[in-house]
Amino acid sequence: MPRPDEEQEKDKEDQPQGLVPGGAVVVLSGPHRGLYGKVEGLDPDNVRAMVRLAVGSRVVTVSEYCLRPVSQQEFNKNTLDLRQQNGTASSRKTLRNQELHVQQDNSEKKRKHLPDRWDSEHMGGVKRLDGPAAKSEKAARRSQHWLHRDLRVRFVDKMYKGGQYYNTKMIIEDVLSPDTCVCRTDEGRVLEGLREDMLETLVPKAEGDRVMVVLGPQAGRVGHLLSRNRARSRALVQLPRENQVVELHYDAICQYMGPSDTDDD
Question: How far is Cα of residue 83 from the mean position of the Cα atoms in its chain?
Answer without folding.
Answer: 27
